[in-house]
């Protein structure tokens, strides 16, 4: 049994675990000088109350020792930032390239981390043989099925949860007109979940999207979709709330209530799957304070609900953030700056994690 592949301790044990850890923390902190010198990490603060994750990218994992050390020491969950996307995994039809993703899975195993698989069905980062092809709907359905079954089977037993479907909705709650939706209609979602379940019955299966933090037409569409899938017995186990926020926008309201309608009313897990808080550059003290506040509020909302099981930041250092290349003039979105100095948001999360365990 490989340690990194175990499922998290049942959450029913949280209170017991917390009591033991609180005692251990205070004993060590007060008696052991070595412990006092070594700052506590996010994963130590979280222990098993929640998975604390980061997106992880190659080649920085191979080429930047500080990146590698922090990725391994601060987090107990990792999401491959790009290595499990369709263009990386199946660049030619039927030709599967798993080396980069395998390397991340091996890194996770070596560091006793869970892996959040990302992503099987999306409209971005598709190979050109697929987007440029002329396939009938029936052919596309076969292609999608083969891709999902091949990839999920390859990683069977090594993935805690899969983002099976990514970003299926428009802002107004209608379905996004992706190549999948246009060819197959909304049933592609149920099909994808069933195929993934067939290939790895143990993996949790998520639908993931952005701008669904608060209660709004898009998150309500997600709610209605998951409700209808559950009613049909489709294997959906979780909703991924990406959490790409910006200090130039207001904080999404009702985030705790939104999480709870999924966990309490529908009985599914929630994960905060891609948390970051960007700013229009340059950053000033006000933006930094807003960033800290937003990270803090998202983390608190997740920690308030035992079935919000994972908080993942979409990269932990501004040095490799995806933000500047996608949002011109914006950046500074992560919890460490480009020199690996931890920001106030890092310490806010650390405090939140400790507080959730009763400190
Ligand atoms: C981003 C990666 O971070 C970038 O490196 C890549 O160039 C583009 O994709 N929502 C998602 C993620 O679900 O897969 C995206 O990741 C960010 C937005």
Radius of gyration: 20 Å
Count up the helices: 16
- The share of residues in helices is 40-55%
Structural class: alpha/beta
How is the main sheet built? 8 strands, parallel, barrel
Number of strands: 10
Please, what is the average pLDDT? 92
Question: What is the beta-strand fraction?
Answer: 15-25%
Q: Could you give the order of strands across the largest sheet?
A: 1-2-3-4-5-6-8-9
Low-confidence runs of at least 5 consecutive residues: 1-35
Report the order of strands and helices.
Answer: HHHEHHEHHEHHEHHEHEEHEHEHEH
Shape: globular
Bound molecules: (3S,4R)-3-hydroxy-2-oxopiperidin-4-yl beta-D-xylopyranoside
The termini sit apart by 33 Å
Write the layout of secondary structure elements.
Blueprint: H1 14-31, H2 33-37, H3 42-46, E1 51-56, H4 60-63, H5 65-74, E2 77-80, H6 86-89, H7 99-110, E3 114-121, H8 128-131, H9 137-154, E4 161-166, H10 179-184, H11 187-199, E5 204-209, H12 217-231, E6 238-241, E7 244-246, H13 255-266, E8 269-280, H14 285-303, E9 308-313, H15 323-326, E10 330-331, H16 344-356
Parallel strand pairs: 1-2, 1-9, 2-3, 3-4, 4-5, 5-6, 6-8, 7-8, 8-9
Antiparallel strand pairs: 8-10
The structure holds (3S,4R)-3-hydroxy-2-oxopiperidin-4-yl beta-D-xylopyranoside.
